Structure formats: C-alpha cells, structure tokens
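Archive entry: two folds, one per protein. Generate the first.
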Amino acid sequence: MWENAAPTPPPQHGSPSSGRRRRVSQSDGDYVIWGQLLLSLAFLALVLLAQMMDLPFLPALRTAFREAMMPEQNTFLSENRELSKFTEQAVQTLANTVQKFMPTQSQTATPETAVRQTHAKAQQVPSGAREESYLPSFAICFPLAGRACTETSGYGWRTDPMGGSGSDFHLGNDLAAEEGTAILAAADGVVRCAGVHSSYGRYVRILHANGDETLYAHMQYLFVHTGQRISAGDCLGTVGDTGNATGPHLHFELLHKGIRYDPSEALQNAA
C-alpha cells in the first residue's frame, strides 16, 4: 500500500527528474480543477431539480456529499477539501437565490392581490358590466365644474364602504367634491331618467350617440327632467350625499349599449 512504500529522496536541483515531477504536479492540479467543476455542476443540477420540484431530498444530498469527502479521497481532492467548501457554499447560494427569485404565492401576495385573486376565482363581474375601459367616439366634458374633486373610489372590486363584511363591484368612479358643486352633462343627449333611487339617491341618466350613456348619482338637487334634451356642459344638478353615500360626491358611470365600463380613461381625456 501507499503507507508501506519506501520514501523517495527529494531530487537535486537541476536534475532531469525535477522537471518531470513539476510537470506531473501541474497535470494533477488540472485534474483537480476539472474534477471540482464537473462534480460541482452535477451536484448543483441535483439541487436545482430539488428546488424546482419541491423535493425534500436536499439535506440527504448534502449528507451524501459530506460522506464522499472521506480522508481516502484526498489522493484526488487535496487535503484542504477545497471542492467540499466550494460546493457547500454554492449550494447555499443557489438555495437562497431560488428562494428569492422563485417565491411562493404566500410570500408575494399582498392583501389587495389576495382579495382580487379570491374574487377572480370565486366571483364573477356582475351581469351588465365589464372590467375593461371604454372610450366614446365623441369628446366628453368633465362632469364637475372646475374639476374641483378627488377620486375616492375607482371602478371594480372594493371593500364595502357602507360597513359590510364583504366587498362589492363598484360600477363607476366616485369623485368627492364640496356639496353644491355643479354637475355638468358630459355630452349632448336626452335625459332617460331623472329621479330618486334607493342606492343612487337623486340621479340622472342620459342617452348619448351610438348607444352610449352616462349616469350621475347622489345628487343634492336635480335641475333636469326625463325626456329633456340637453347639451354638453349643461348643469344637471349639484353634488350631494343622497342614497347610499358616506359623504358628498358624484358617482359617475359610463355605459355602452347597456353595459357598464370603467370610465377612468374617459374622465382622464375629458375636456
């Protein structure tokens, strides 16, 4: 065995055997480097597979690797076990990277995202509504004089503002404004309805061209009546908090052929 082999005296400087031994040492170093790279790549591939498939054998792989680094392997790997240290560090780095860039759903889901995902799976958009925006083919006026308002609730799913335990699909945009602010017609048309509703309070619904409609709710006063022809910019009434409202604001809806759409883009482009 290697332990019983007679020791070889060190070669003298300048002797022919000295150069040969240096060349052999360099070749052995190359083998060690290539061996480290190949084994590390193979091991890291197994670790990546375990992470991607959520398999619980990563600890077993690491245990098997440590067992492989027994003293008798030093003839190939070196006494400092550089391969073991390198691969162990690479495994830890890879595990941290995978966890960072491939997080689980519970780590990434915000409360708002979770609510929207729940609605998407368990509930559907109400009949007569769509989630996308719609732009009328004609220009519209902003429905509040001087644009003196603040949007307090957008179109779509939201927590019930009336204190309910669940949530609802909001069919328009809420624009908070001072009570008594003039509400203006968004475009030319005919008043289809001007009256009182249990939820809308005092409201006006106007029919425009191409089957488009606008609706104005929670009004303090109504200045128009059903069947009246109006022009863009005409005053329909004033901002109030009638119906189901938590404060003075205009609830504005946009419909196309009886279907409600998100009016946000239309309001942004309004003159």
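Generate the second and append.
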Amino acid sequence: MTKRRKAVVAVTAGLATISLGLSFTSAAGAAPEAAAANPGGLKLIKTKTSLLGKHYWYQQTFKGLPVINGYYAKHVTKAGGVQVADGRDAVPANLDVSAAVQPATATQTANAVVSAKAQRARIGAPNKTIAPAPAATSGAAQLAVIGGPNARLVWNVTSRSAEGVSRSLVDAKTGSMVESKVISDNIDGRGSVFDPNPVVSERNEKLTDMNDANQDALFVAQKNVVLRNLDGSGRLNGTFVNIAKGNGGLAKSDNNTFIYQRANNKFEQVMAYYQTNQAQEYIQQLGFTDANNESQDFSIDTIRDDNSFYDPSTDMITMGDGGVDDAEDAEVIWHEYGHAIQDDIVPGFGETLEAGSIGEGFGDYWAVTMSVPVSRGFELPCVMDWDATSYTSTEPHCLRRTDGNKTTDDIVGEVHDDGEIWSRALWDIHQSLGRTKANKVILEATFFYDPDTSFAAAAQDTVQAARLLYGKAAAQQVTNAFTARKIL
C-alpha cells in the first residue's frame, strides 16, 4: 500500500499552516484541511503527554470500520504550536462494506497460511532442537478496510503461532489472502529455575523450606535456562504460557532476562513459564498439535493455601504459596497442567468419580513422566518430592507415588486416593512401552474419552490406541497393566 502523508507545522501559536496542492480524498470525502481543524471521520484512540506538549492519535475509519494502517496525529506544543502527521489512505466513497465471506472461513484461511509459514521457518532455521511449529490459533476476525488504489473490504485476523503474533488480511469478498505478516516476534529469554525441584536435583531429602528463605543449598539447586517462545512483551507471556497474575506483581524485563532467587515471588512465575513450556513442547514433539495448544493462563502465589488447582470455568491454573510455594516444584506445575490438557481435549472431563480419579491419576503420572529427562532416576515414582517436605516426616518425601499396589478392590470414593490405581497402570505402561510410545498411546486415548468415562472404558480406549499405533504386542502389554489393577 502506498500512503500519501504530510506534516503540518504551526508558524503562529494556536494556528496550523496548511500546505496546499496535495490530491487527497479523505474517508468522509472531505479535504485534509478540515480534518486538521476538526478531524471528522477519525476516531481518537490515544492521548499522550510528553515534556513538550500533548499528542493526539486518531484511527482512520470508513463507514465505522477501521482503515488498516490509516492514522492521523496532532501534536500540540505547550506554546500552542501544532504539527499534524497525516497517514490516511484514500477510500472510494462507494466502497461496499458488506462481507461475502464468513469470519470463520477467513480465520481458517489465515491460520493455514500462518501455520505453513511457521513450519517453513522452523525447517530452515539452523541448530534448532525445539518442537515442530504448532498450528496457529487466533482470536475473532474483524472487518476492516484497506485504502489506496486497491481499496477493498477485508477480514483482519490476528493469529498466534511459533513465529509470534501475525496479522492476516483476507479479502472479505473473494476469500483470498491479501497479506500476512508477523507483527510481534517470539523470542528467547533467560531465566533461573529448579529442575524439577531441589530434592531431586540435589538428591537431598533433608532440605526444608525455612519459610521461603534464600539458602545456599537452594541457590546451588537453581539452573540457568532458556525461556523459549516469549512474545517479546517483556513479560512472561508466550505461545504456550501466560503468567496472568502474580502475588507482588508480574515479572517484567526489558531484555527478557528473568533471574531471581527463590525468596522472590517472581521466581515461581519463571518456574511456571519454563516448566509449562517444556511440557507443551514435549507434547508437540510427540506429534500432538491440538492438546492444550494455547497460551495457558497462570495465577502464581495468589492463594495462601498449600494447594493448587485448575479451574476449567476460567481455564486458569492457580498456584498456592502455603508451605513450600507450590510453583517451586515442577511436579506440582505438571500435575495441574495435566488437568488443563485433559479438559482441553475432552470438554467437561471428570464428571464422575472414576473420571475424576483418572484425572488425578493422569496428573500424577504426567508429573512423573515429565521428570524423567531431568531426575537422573532419583525416586522417579515419588510425586512432588520438594512440596511434600512441608507436610511429610518420612523419607522419601512424597505426596503420592505412581508405583503403589492399589487395585479397584481398594476404591474408597476419593479422587486422589483412587487416582493412584490409574497412575500405577499408566506407570506400568510407561515401563513396558518406554516413555515415548507410552505417552503417545496415553494422550491419543484421551481424545476418545467421554467426560464421564469409567476406568474400564478409558482402559479400553487406551488398549485400542496402543493396538492402532503399535500393534497387538503393545496392546497386550497395555492390557496387562490394566488387568493387574483389576480395571480390565
């Protein structure tokens, strides 16, 4: 698009001297002089104050719709001088603004183009070891106008992908792509975390919280990491994670460096971002591009309980700060993220006792399987080793384990207790098939669950997934795991 722009500078206080001779038709059909005095057809969107004066920014509109890249600014100095920056595009007065293409169609077109571009960028990037580019997601499409010699009505679709935030313009009459470009790049940042927690990384069951104090023993447990997929806003927001709320305010960094000691509440924000991003990248590596493939919201240290939870009504994970701050233990983060994964795959999942128990069992299992690459085998089946130091006296410190001996004979009607039956079955599948195959089978089966599924029905779905993915021998090993728990 070619713009006609001009600056108008006052030569006397309070009056603007207007340059003449510019051929221009405004959105309202008026000459730009009229807009300079009283910007008709423009929408004031922002007023800023600087040391030298005030600055008024307007969005150009046409028949109530925004004109892409059409702007108009008036800068008024304290002495009364006026400077105008006119970035409007001419729009024919007879342009039809009724759309022939539905917004859902435009969104689908835009996301397909953005996804393909992101995938090509990943393939062509050197030394990349991160996950394949996920499919793009977007918010609602909005009607807008492109001005200039090729004026047209378009759907403006904002999409989020592995490249960042993209803006796509889809012709609202023909459905063809007009333009798609990245408007906010994803970047890498730096942070410091426990991985997965101090008890495991230091192989030390004697560590204690000491009321959230900094300690030498915990300082050496911190690990410097790369924070991938940040959106460049200077906050811990990205493709897969959004730290939406935090006790004491949200972490912010102009150079995307988020390094804190554990006594600082922002340390837990970094933990939640890094460990959740790790989990979703792993899911993408397994081949799943639609299992909570979104920016998961977190609220960190915002309740004074030794408890954390996922709220499906708001799609928010809330981490408590009672005892050991929950977000200091990656296994707590991964457990809660497990609930978000299942709720995303199966809307309303967990409506019955057994379905809820499957959810708790999967959360424990997910925490353990995510620990495999970083635990070096230390007490793997022990869930939440660091968090549990606040409320257990025996060693090893565990909230629960995934290698217990419960069967359906031991059902007591409480989802966490009964979830140990399910987590043991999943852990046995993990041991039999190996981490990669087991997790592909378990996640694939989840797509076939009902919200009120039973142990037996979910087990049958898992056996079928194993059969279709890896054949009869794998299906038999999965069957054996569920049979041992008296589920099948």
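Annotation attached to the second fold: The CA atoms of residues 411 and 417 lie 8 Å apart. Confidence is low (pLDDT under 50) at residues 1-38, 123-134.
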